[in-house]
Amino acid sequence: MPNFFIDLIAATDEGRREFETHPVVFASVAHGMSIERYRALLCELYHIVWHFNPICAAAASRIDDGYANIRHFLYRHIHEESGHEQWVLNDLEAIGVSREQVIARPSQNVLALVGFNYWASDRRHPCSVLGMMYVLEVLAAVYGGPFSATIRETLFLEGERGTSFLSSHASLDAVHLAELRDILNQLTSEDAKAAVTESVLVNFRQITSVFGAI
User: Fold this and answer.
1) What share of the chain is helix, strand, coil (3-state, %, to 5)?
2) What's the predicted TM-score (pTM) here?
3) What DSSP designation does 67 have?
4) Where residue 178 falls among pLDDT bands split at 50, 70, 90?
5) What is the CATH number assigned to the segment(s) 4-212?
6) Given phi > 0 = left and psi -120 to 50 = alpha, else beta, which region is 162?
């Protein structure tokens, strides 16, 4: 049976490796971050998480009945992700950043990331949103746990104080990734597959830029 999920990994693995070998990413996972850089990262993540559900909703509104299974998958995922930007705000407050400081204009790298995903869902192919989901869930499932553990150790944070978003998504997105694998393997259209592959590559590139600028 065709396995698009495996094909997607093979086609986009270079993008993932560019992320994990970036000097900032590598050093952050291995040695942690200063409190200033961690605050900056969470501020960027806040805007990414805030736009996640609107992007999924925009894609769902463009999906016709030929992809009804994907539309219903997005509906479920939107429900599950609702309010997660609040988790980021809670972590920021725990490390001394007020809500007023957070809710400011995001960086150009974040604007480029979310802007591409809105555009791709509307103009390229609505299934491209699955590429954004793949990248964010791979990063959370693979790197979220080690990164949050290093941050707690280097910044002397107690329990999950200040890292609740990262640590919770490390396990949560492992489940989501399994669900996403099943959905991706239901894609039959070559146009949809190409849009997802393109989206994964662009999202890996943009999220690497976000980390690299911290």
Assistant:
1) 85, 0, 15
2) 0.92
3) G
4) confident
5) 1.20.910.10
6) left
